[in-house]
Amino acid sequence: MPKFLQKHLPVTTLIKKINNGEKIDELMGKANKLLDHSVVIHVVTNDLDNAYQLFEVLNDRGKDLAIGDYLRSSSLELISSNDTAVDRVSEIWDEILSEDLADKFLKDYLSSYKGKLKKSNVHKQFRQEFWSDSKDQRVSNVVTRVENINKMRKIHTSLLKAEWPFKSSNAVKSWHRLRLEKLLIELRHKHCIPLLLMLYENVDDLTFYNTIDVLEKFIFRYMRIGGSRANRITKIYNSTIKNVRNGEQFDLDKFKQGLKNLLIKHSSDDIFEVKLKELEYNTSNISTIRYLLTMLSYYKNSYDSGDRDSDLKPDISIIHNVDSGDIEHIYANSHNYDGKLNENRNKIGNLTFWATSDNRSQKEAKFNVKKVVYINSPVNITKSIAEYSQWTIDEFKYRNNYLIDMSKEIFKL
After folding, report:
1. Is the pTM of the predicted complex or chain greater than 0.85?
2. pLDDT digits (tens, 9 = 90+) for 6-36
3. Count of H helices and E strands in the chain?
């Protein structure tokens, strides 16, 4: 409807270089079109909740409902006796509702306190959570709450952009902050945003990162490789949110155990191994392959050290930007034909990636020529290929199993 109105606004006719009679005819035509496309419903009610519930029913077209205007009016109504508070809250709501995704944020904000939301009557759930104070506390609490909503709106915007929400610290390096982008953008998992909003208000930045680290590895294994849906994870998010908001301290080990139980049931080591053996490079899963190869390179040194009693530690001395690099096939199409290698050329064991600084001019060359290029690569899993004296189906099988075994160690909880 807004686009239709914009198209038929009178101003477009009034500025035309035509005579007044033609302008009147055109304006009348536009007025008739507006009337033909409009329906006016007049409903009288003394109950604002009933009015909003009717609005929800009439406006429900599978899109986010505009709850911001209701929350603004209901909060202002509660503090109407205090002009200073009304001015302050009104100004803040103007800022909040100026965002294109204001309603999305308000639902995520409420979810970060309640966990699971009912689909209808979101305004009632919001009011019950935040506007139910006694009258003598109402003004200060409404102002404080709306100020908090606005503060968290900015954090929500940062999270949607995968920007680290905390100020920089020595404990969380650039590589660690990048994990948020991997989780939200590369792995496309934004179901966790209400959980992250809750954590931002209740934990320090190091605990926040450690949670992101757990989630990133879990989501890749459980959803991206395992193909499971998010509904079971969301239940864990919701219960965690409710527990912390009810006064419990966030327990990362308890949270991790809940996710680990899902892995045991739906993505065990055996299942994960089978899925990785089936994984092949193609145009639809380039991002999955790039992500996996990058993680393998980061954790290779720690894995090779043989210490399995503690979690593997990534080598963060170099941050790989795989988007600007190329996936490398060790056995390529231009090589002397090898039927067995050709059958497996798109599997993990035959793949690595070039760093942006690598000389990729030899990517189609034979193995003994490419070895010279591999050895100078800053990418751990690429550099190590030069240790092989030749590249046959036996070397492929060994490396394929090696990378899969490493993956099981990296992506365990």
Report:
1. no
2. 555 565 666 666 777 777 777 777 777 777 7
3. 20, 2
